[in-house]
Structure formats: C-alpha cells, structure tokens
From TrEMBL:
It is found in: Secreted, Cell wall. GO terms for molecular function: glucan endo-1,3-beta-D-glucosidase activity. Keywords: Cell wall, Hydrolase, Membrane, Secreted, Signal, Transmembrane, Transmembrane helix. Its main location: secreted. InterPro entries: Beta-glucan_modifiers, GH, Glyco_hydro_17. One of its GO terms (cellular component) is fungal-type cell wall. This is Glucan 1,3-beta-glucosidase. GO terms for biological process: carbohydrate metabolic process; cell wall organization.
Length: 355
C-alpha cells in the first residue's frame, strides 16, 4: 500500500511499463557477403535498430547465434563491445550443431565476462543453447535439406554444460533456454529439452507453412496455431518469440507470396499485436544469409528509413511510434530529456519520502 501513490504517478507518466519485455532483431555473425561482421558493422546495425523511423517502441535488444567472432576459434564476438557502446540488451546464443563440444563457445563467453565485466553482463537477458538444432534432424528439416542438427540428448548435455560454466559468474542467474521451431517443441521425443530449459524460444514463420493454408490473409491463424502448439508443449515455462517475420522478396512458398505489401501486412497484423507484450526478436533488420533467396530485411543498407512504415495501428496495443523526426538532436528533444530527468528526480524523492 505504501507504494500506491508513487506507482500511480509512475504509471501515469508511462514509465512503469517500460522495459517489461524485450524488443529487437536477430543478428548473424557474418555479412551478406559472408565476411565476418566487425565491431563497426554490429554498431551500425544496433544503432539503426534503435533509430528506425516510426518504430513502435525501442528496438534495443539483439539475439545472437554464437559467442565466437567469425573466423576465429574462441575469440569473443565483436557484437559484445558494439552492444556495450549502443546500450543494447543481449540474448546470447551458443552454436551447437556440427560439434561434440561447446568448449570454444564457453571460452569466448568467459573471456568476454573477464574482459568487459559488468558493462557486458548487465546487458545479458538470457542465453539460448542452440538454434533449430532439433528441427534440422526432424523429418521436415531433412526434407528441406536444412543441414546438420543435434538430438535432444546432446542438447540436454550442452544446456547442463552451460549452467555449470555460468556457476559463480555474474551470469549465474540468467535464463538458459533453447530456440527451435514450433514443430520441434511439439515433438514429444524432444520433451527432455523442455524439462531442462528456463524458457522456450520459438521461431514462427507462417510463410514457410505450406501445408497450413499460408496465404497472407490466413497468417494470423497459422501464427496462432504454431504459437499455441509451442505454448501447450511448454506447460508453465515462458515462451519467447525468437524469430518471426515475412519476406519482402523471394520465391512463393505454398500460397505465400513474398512482397513488400505482405511484409507490411504481417508486421501490422502479427508484429503490432505482440510488440511490448512478449519478448520478440524480429527476423530481420538486415539480411545476412546470402543462401536464402527469401529476403526479410526491413531496412536496405541499414538506413533508418525502413522499406515500409513501421508505425502500428492505434488500437493494436503496441507501443506508440518513436523517432518521428530525423535523429539529429533538436531543441525539442533536449527539452523532453530535461523534462524526463526532472520527472525522475521528483519520483526518486517521492519514493524515498514514502519508504
Ligand atoms: C566500463 O564502462 C566504463 C564507462 O564507459 C569504462 O570507464 C570502463 O573502463 C569499462 N570497463 C571495462 C572493464 O571495460
Ligand atoms: C521428432 O524428434 C526426434 C528427435 O529429435 C526426431 O528423430 C524425429 O524425426 C522427429 N519426428 C518428426 C516427425 O520429425
Ligand atoms: C488457416 O489456417 C488454419 C491453421 O493453420 C488452417 O486450419 C485453415 O485451414 C487455414 N485456412 C485456409 C482458408 O487455408
Ligand atoms: C490460440 O489460443 C488463443 C488463446 O487461447 C485462442 O484465442 C486462439 O483461438 C487459438 N488459435 C488457434 C489457431 O488455435
Ligand atoms: C507512418 O504512419 C503514421 C500513421 O499512419 C503517419 O502518421 C506517419 O506520417 C507515417 N510516416 C511516414 C514516414 O510516412
């Protein structure tokens, strides 16, 4: 009760709900010409994500697939210093397929913890051990020639390895999970992995669901079906949406067509109904997989002006648009910042007075 007044004030300023769920994009380790991304490449990407015009909330979280800088054995990925510089929150990734040991991933992570200290660890919101490993060895993964994967027994072992390696470090309490397709989560043979994780990351792409009636007009049903299937497999464990999106160009897939209009429709009908309410890492800010003919990037050349208007319908429940102006500092934005600082100072005073 003694917090009633200040909390009401906080809520009325719209501050209380900030930072409740993570909003961001995925980021691969290499560029669209398969070169290792350097710190400057990551920085540009993370900076663009936060400055997207008419963005429905601040996209300041990044999901990575590996801790290792591309073309090195176990050097920490340069996304880490870029995240520190841009104050981006990190969902870390451990690459688990095609290997019998994740030792190099864990070495890269512990080197980063030592090297960057709390500047780094304070940004980490979770760690995903693996990405679509069990999908790749499933019937549909094999049919789609998805590549080398990993079975549930190995995934459970790797998750335990990660927990053991984080013990006694500043990251010992972060959520440890795994990312896979909804089909892999719904497959009962993979239940041991669900028992082992703190969260389930799910990758949902109605575009690829060619046996589900995947015309864009049915995207909401297909998305809900896939999300619901993950949730029922998850039981009480949290489900994070680690990849979702619709390609702007590329081949047809079943009834799905890759067009700018459909990508915008998908953003509006799916993205705008989840942003700010569940953890979402959208696929994708900028394409970096030259082997995929479908192109999902919402920006071209990392421009802060996206390919379509990102603002969400007013009644969608998504955060209001930000970055309405070009990002150069105007007198107006400085005035807003100082108003906010004064508001925060008053609230700090209120809290201490009431406590
Ligand atoms: C952490 O960030 C602060 C402020 O930028 C800097 O002074 C300090 O050297 C950084 N620490 C490490 C270990 O990088
Ligand atoms: C279910 O999962 C197991 C283990 O990951 C896999 O071997 C099997 O092929 C999967 N089933 C289907 C129908 O894909
Ligand atoms: C829409 O999607 C749902 C769920 O996948 C499916 O059952 C239904 O048949 C689809 N509708 C059409 C018209 O294809
Ligand atoms: C998914 O679950 C939600 C909430 O329980 C429900 O409203 C919706 O109809 C379900 N959708 C499908 C396609 O199963
Ligand atoms: C984006 O859409 C919003 C809402 O309809 C509109 O107010 C805004 O002017 C549009 N922005 C751009 C850059 O077209």
């Amino acid at each position: 009760m003694r917090f009633a007044v200040p909390l009401a004030v906080v809520a009325s300023l719209g501050l209380a709900l900030a930072d409740q769920s993570f909003l961001g994009f995925n980021s691969g380790a290499t560029t669209d010409s398969k070169k290792p991304k350097k710190q400057a490449d990551f920085e540009k990407e993370f900076d663009t994500a936060q400055k997207l015009r008419y963005s429905p909330g601040l996209f300041n979280s990044v999901r990575l697939y590996t801790n290792i800088q591309a073309e090195t054995t176990d050097t920490p990925i340069e996304a880490f210093p870029a995240a520190i510089k841009t104050n981006s929150k990190l969902l870390l990734g451990i690459w688990c397929s095609g290997t019998t040991s994740i030792k190099n991933e864990l070495t890269a992570l512990s080197t980063a913890i030592t090297k960057y200290g709390s500047n780094f660890t304070n940004l980490v919101v979770g760690i995903s051990v693996g990405s679509e490993d069990m999908y790749r060895i499933s019937d549909s993964g094999i049919k789609n020639k998805a590549g080398v994967g990993q079975g549930p027994t190995t995934m459970v072992k790797f998750i335990k390895d990660v927990r053991a390696s984080l013990k006694g470090t500043p990251l010992s309490n972060i959520p440890v999970g795994h990312v896979d397709t909804w089909t892999a989560w719904a497959n009962k043979s993979n239940k041991a992995v669900i028992d082992e994780v703190d969260f389930l990351g799910t990758n949902l792409f109605p575009y690829y669901e060619d046996d589900k009636g995947n015309d864009i007009s049915n995207a909401t049903s297909v998305f809900e079906y896939a999300l619901n299937s993950t949730k029922s497999a998850a039981g009480k464990k949290p489900v994070w949406i680690t990849e979702t999106g619709w390609p702007l160009t590329g081949p047809d897939f079943g009834q799905a067509k890759a067009t700018l209009d459909n990508a915008r429709t998908y953003w509006n009908t799916i993205g705008c109904t989840i942003f700010g309410r569940v953890n979402v890492w959208w696929y994708e800010l900028h394409d970096s997989n030259p082997d995929n003919a479908a192109k999902f990037g919402v920006t071209k050349d990392l421009s802060t002006t996206p390919q379509f208007n990102l603002s969400c319908p007013a009644n969608s429940g998504a955060p209001a648009s930000i970055n309405l102006q070009d990002t150069k500092k105007s007198a107006g934005s400085i005035a807003t910042v100082s108003f906010m600082s004064i508001a925060v100072m008053c609230l700090t005073w209120l809290f201490s007075a009431v406590a």
